[in-house]
Each structure stands twice: as C-alpha cells, then as structure tokens.
Design a protein that fits this description.
134 residues; four-stranded antiparallel β-sheet; two-stranded antiparallel ribbon; 6 strands
C-alpha cells in the first residue's frame, strides 16, 4: 500500500519551533543530513516512491480555472494561511503501522540544538482507484 506523509507547519508551532530562517548553519546541515539519510534508508528498503521539500509558502500560487478563458492566479503570501505544507514523502510499505513508524521517525528530525522537532506528520493512504461500488 502507498501512503503520503505530509510534513505540515502552522502558526501555532512558532512558540515551540523557531522558523528555519533563524536556525544556525550547523543546525540546518544536521536537519538536512537527517532527511537525506532517511531518504537513503527508505530507498534501500524499497519503500521510497518520492519525497520532496517544498519552497516557502510566499512563493505559492493559487490557481482557479473556470472551464474557459484564462485561469485566475493569485500569488502568495497568503496572510490568512495558518498552516502550510513543508514537504512530503510517498512510501510504499506493507502495513499502515509501517507508514506510522516512518512518520514518527521523520517527526523527530533534529531542529535547533539537535532537539527532536516533534513535527506533525499527516499519514494518508494513496488511493489507487475509487471504491468498486461507484
């Protein structure tokens, strides 16, 4: 089964997690080394389908198509946004428990001072097709 692991940040986390723009170079390097090592381990186990970090939300665009004519494109930042997606993994693993195990490991990625970040990681099964009764 495939699962998407979504790394999300929110304004509520700012009290406990300083923005990455305030981390030292060594703290960022340690964090990135952890993420790279995680991806290498998931690749070696055959579980990694894809994983990417995303640009900061101020680079985002919201696109709405109306079916005809040019779409409406709104560029960020979006001040009403309280949460944003920082990155994701798609993993192919045998059980939902394994997907949760991977999410827990990623949640504990090192942050400032090397302390575990305790990031919220949303785990969602990737659907391969609609239910048979549709």
């Amino acid at each position: 089964m495939k699962y998407m692991l979504l790394m999300q940040f929110s304004a509520d986390m700012q009290d406990t997690l300083p923005p990455i723009t305030t981390w030292s170079a060594d703290e960022i390097k340690a964090h990135m080394a952890f993420m790279n090592e995680t991806n290498q381990q998931l690749t070696a186990s055959g579980e990694l389908v894809d994983g990417q970090g995303l640009a900061m939300p101020e680079t985002a665009k919201i696109v709405r198509g109306h079916g005809s004519g040019a779409p409406v494109v709104t560029e960020g930042p979006f001040p009403e946004t309280k949460e944003f997606l920082a990155g994701y993994w798609i993993v192919d693993c045998p059980t939902p428990e394994r997907a949760v195990e991977i999410a827990a490991a990623v949640s504990a990625a090192p942050g400032p001072g090397g302390a575990p970040l305790n990031m919220p990681i949303e785990v969602r099964q990737v659907m391969s097709a609609p239910p048979g009764d549709l």
